[in-house]
Specification:
The structure holds 2 protein chains of 2 kinds. By secondary structure, chain A is mainly alpha-helical. Helices cover about 55% and strands about 5% of the residues of chain A. Chain A has a single domain (about 35-145, about 220-410), classed as SGNH hydrolase (Rossmann fold, 3-Layer(aba) Sandwich). Chain A has a 5-stranded parallel β-sheet, sandwiched between helices. Chain A is globular, with a radius of gyration of 23 Å. By secondary structure, chain B is mainly α. Chain B has helices at about 10-30, 35-50, 55-80, 85-110, 120-135, 145-150, 165-175, 180-220, 230-260, 275-280, 285-305, 315-330, 335-360, 370-390, 395. In chain B, helix 1 (about 10-30) packs antiparallel against helix 2 (about 35-50), helix 3 runs parallel beside helix 5 and helix 13 packs antiparallel against helix 14. The model of chain B has no long low-confidence stretch (mean pLDDT about 95). Classes of the chains: A mainly alpha, B mainly alpha.
């Protein structure tokens, strides 16, 4: 009988013991190969964005994070990653963002990176499309949600306006609420309490498990973006001034925008707007309004984090394709008010590096499609970003204001010029 | 407190198995700890309906159970001395009424029925089955406590498998020998671990990882002729998800039943290896299809033959199939795609019958070897997957048709 008991339950016990040992052991992982880091820096996948290993190793080797969202995947020859590689710039961009990453996702998924960015520089492309009434899209947040980064944050959280606000916001998300341990920790932070000791121990054990999972299971193989980037790099001349690049960008842009009058990339147009779908979009965005909503306070979380870690950030506000906007009825006046509100929030707190391109939506070949910067737009970004990253780091003076976490700010109207 | 979702995550097993330790120790020593088992069931069922969004379902459950108990007790008492058909029909209708109300409410109202709760379908199958057996005389009486225990058996409460009262009661009354119980525990372990692989790994991979991607691809190709490829991808991915998710769940339910010394019937037996549609329904969601076979298909067939409504025997079975699968479709929900799904299977099984008869007649001239068998499995698999594409509602909800 004993023999049979062992036959049945022995393997289970051994397997359970081994698994537990593996996950709770303080494993250290060997460095990723340069090829793997290069691949991860343009992967823009949830594995990379929500994981810790790839991002942090790249940063430790001097990569500069380029935060953003869908525009980052427009890997044409003038994309920052292409220019940096072709012209052997002193920086290598690490792309942090994908369609659907908004302020709250960026804030949480930056947590393990922030200490490594202390006293350094970063580039941040903000999309006005994030600033909807509802704020971050719930499904997209869940898709990029990182328990590892969230636990890292919650263990550092203090009883401040920012941390209480962040905890409250995270508790709105389904992926977060599903996790009992994280949920109860967040409830404590949101209530302004200190995490109790058993909770802390559990979270720390959890963090070890998550770090081991990240190290064991995140593998980076060649991704399609890498191939696309390689193709783009090959199209660039060996040397070029910014003006020459601009002229080339106009040429490449012209060659890619032949089947429509909007200056939209041919392939984008035929796959997304072809076969009668364009007509359905006429006047569709008349009610779009980016002036209010939780995104403003979510964005403030990022600003507070950048200030705390003394990071010098170059912000970029891309335009919206003007022909597209007028076709869909998007209100320019409201858009400019939204941009103005964002600029008040940035510059009012000392974030003075703001490249506001929001009025450049009518320049030819500036946008690759409807709302995504491309070709000449990227060249324009490069004109500001390259010198910023080449120059010596300058001291920054940020003075945070917690009124940006309030409802009255989220609902405020700032009149545009 | 947030409600407990049965088998939704590995933590559920940890909590449940800890609560069942005394039961295991008791069975090991030849005793069934009836009170403890009932207590665990009570606590867990209460917990499943805890919280601000679920408590009214718990209230509905209590009301439902009282209703079914009164019906079965009343009918059992009546049946001792009488046997009028209309009383039986009335009892069955009253038993089904809450479920029918729950299924029909979304058609006429925007909010779900207040009578609804998680698992109402499966409890209704069990209650109706008891009424049927009382009518047939295969059961003379049903003790109220035994009925409740059967109805609310914790491992199967939310989604089956659908056990039969007499089979369940036999297991419950008998405590297995120690050696036999140890083997049951071994099978329980196998079931639960295989269930983990099915539900948490394969079901997750197909349902949570792949399905949104193929759905996205299909939506992007909407209106173009290239739609067929992502749609095929959706069809197979959804079919795999449906199987691994539900088969995994069923393995859990059978596994936990075994821990409690009850051999709940299996629900799946390699359904995608079926060589025709009939064979498929003997392998897929077996306890449901056997319930439908015994209590709908057979009854309809007898009824038609007894009253000579249809003369031709082949027509009789065809009508019975249609009714059987239409009811199954309606049971899934009163939506176009569930009903089309039911009709599709009825038509498929009728065609299959034609083919089987044709094959019988021409046995000499038709080849039969492993290649034809492989072809049969392949065709059946694809027909079934297509039916699941209908079932998923994807075509209808996204107006892809």
């Amino acid at each position: 009988m004993k023999r049979r008991v062992w036959q049945i339950f022995g393997p289970l016990l051994i397997a359970a013991g081994l698994t537990l040992a593996l996950f709770l052991a303080p494993l250290s992982f060997k460095r990723m190969s340069p090829a793997a880091v290069r691949s991860a820096s343009v992967a823009m996948s949830p594995t990379v964005l929500a994981g810790a290993r790839a991002k942090n190793q790249a940063l430790a080797q001097g990569a500069v994070p380029f935060f953003g969202s869908s525009e980052l995947s427009r890997l044409d020859p003038f994309h920052p990653s292409a220019l940096a590689a072709r012209y052997h710039r002193n920086y290598r961009p690490f792309l942090i963002g994908a369609p659907g990453t908004q302020s709250l996702t960026q804030f949480i998924n930056a947590q393990t990176m922030l200490p490594k960015l202390r006293h350094k520089k970063a580039v941040f492309i903000v999309s006005m499309q994030w600033f909807t009434r509802r704020g971050v899209m719930r499904q997209a947040f869940d898709y990029f949600y990182s328990p590892l980064e969230t636990v890292t944050w919650v263990l550092k959280a203090k009883d401040t306006v920012a941390d209480r606000y962040a905890a409250r916001r995270l508790l709105c998300m389904r992926a977060v609420r599903k996790d009992r341990l994280i949920k109860s920790a967040l409830l404590q932070v949101a209530a302004g309490q200190k995490l109790d000791r058993p909770m802390r121990l559990l979270l720390e054990a959890r963090l070890t498990v998550l770090h081991n999972e990240d190290g064991l299971f995140s593998h980076f193989t060649v991704n399609p973006h890498e191939r696309e980037l390689a193709r783009s790099i090959r199209q660039l001349p060996a040397a070029a001034t910014n003006q020459q690049l601009d002229a080339l960008a106009a040429k490449v842009g012209a060659a890619h925008t032949t089947n429509n009058d909007f200056g939209i990339d041919d392939r984008f147009f035929s796959s997304r707007l072809g076969e009668g779908r364009l007509a359905k979009m006429r006047g569709k965005q008349r009610s779009f309004d980016y002036r209010f909503g939780p995104e403003y306070s979510d964005f403030e979380l990022l600003l507070a984090a950048f200030a705390k870690y003394d990071i010098d950030v170059q912000f970029v506000i891309p335009p919206i394709n003007a022909k597209w906007a007028s076709y869909t009825g998007l209100s320019q006046a409201k858009l400019h008010q939204a941009v103005e509100k964002l600029r008040v929030q940035l510059q009012g707190q000392g974030f003075n590096r703001v490249l506001d391109l929001s009025r450049d939506g009518n320049r030819p070949y500036f946008m690759q499609d409807t709302i995504h910067i491309g070709w000449r737009g990227w060249v324009r970004v490069d004109r500001t970003v390259a010198p910023f990253l080449a120059a010596k780091r300058q001291p920054v003076q940020y003075h945070l204001n917690s009124q940006f976490f309030t409802k009255s700010w989220r609902d405020a109207v700032v009149s545009g010029k | 407190m947030s409600p407990l979702a049965p088998y939704a995550d590995p933590q559920y097993f940890a909590i449940l198995l800890i609560a069942l330790i005394p039961v295991v120790v008791g069975l090991w020593h030849g005793h069934r700890l009836r009170l403890w088992e009932s207590g665990v069931a009570l606590v867990f069922i209460t917990w499943m309906f805890a919280g601000p969004h679920k408590w009214h379902e718990g209230v509905a459950l209590v009301a439902y159970v009282i209703w079914q108990l009164a019906l079965t007790q009343g009918f059992a008492r009546y049946r001792r001395n009488h046997n009028a058909t209309w009383v039986f029909v009335l009892a069955v209708c009253l038993s089904i009424a809450p479920l029918a109300a729950v299924k029909l409410t979304p058609v006429v109202a925007l909010h779900p029925s207040l009578l609804g709760f998680m698992g109402i379908s499966y409890l209704t199958f069990k209650s109706v089955q008891v009424l049927m057996e009382l009518r047939d005389g295969t059961m003379k009486a049903v003790a109220p406590i035994a009925f409740l225990r059967f109805l609310l058996f914790l491992p199967t409460i939310s989604s089956g498998p659908i056990d039969r009262f007499r089979r369940f009661q036999k297991d419950y009354d008998a405590v297995p020998e120690r050696g036999a119980y140890l083997e049951m525990l071994g099978r329980a372990l196998h079931h639960i671990l295989l269930g983990f692989l099915y539900k948490y790994i394969l079901g997750y991979a197909f349902g949570t990882v792949m399905l949104p991607q193929v759905a996205q691809a299909a939506m992007a190709a909407h209106g173009t002729s290239a739609l067929i490829w992502p749609l095929l991808g959706y069809m197979y991915t959804y079919s795999m998800y449906l199987f691994f998710d539900f088969a995994g769940y069923s393995l859990f339910a059978v596994g936990i039943s075994l821990v409690m010394g009850i051999q709940t019937p299996e629900n799946f037996n390699k359904p995608f290896a079926a060589k025709n549609i009939k064979d498929f329904w003997n392998r897929w969601h077996m306890t449901l299809s056997f319930w439908f076979r015994d209590f709908i298909f057979m009854r309809v067939t007898f009824f038609i033959m007894k009253h000579k409504l249809v003369k031709n025997r082949i027509r009789v079975s065809q009508v019975a199939y249609l009714i059987n699968f239409l009811i199954m479709g309606f049971w899934h929900g009163v939506t176009v795609y569930y009903i089309v799904y039911g009709l599709f299977h009825a038509v498929a099984i009728i065609i299959n019958d034609y083919w089987l008869r044709f094959k019988k007649k021409h046995r000499q001239s038709l080849p039969h070897n492993r290649w034809t068998q492989a072809l049969a499995v392949f065709i059946t698999f694809n027909v079934v997957c297509f039916s699941f594409l209908i079932f998923s509602g994807f075509l209808f909800l996204n107006r892809l048709l």
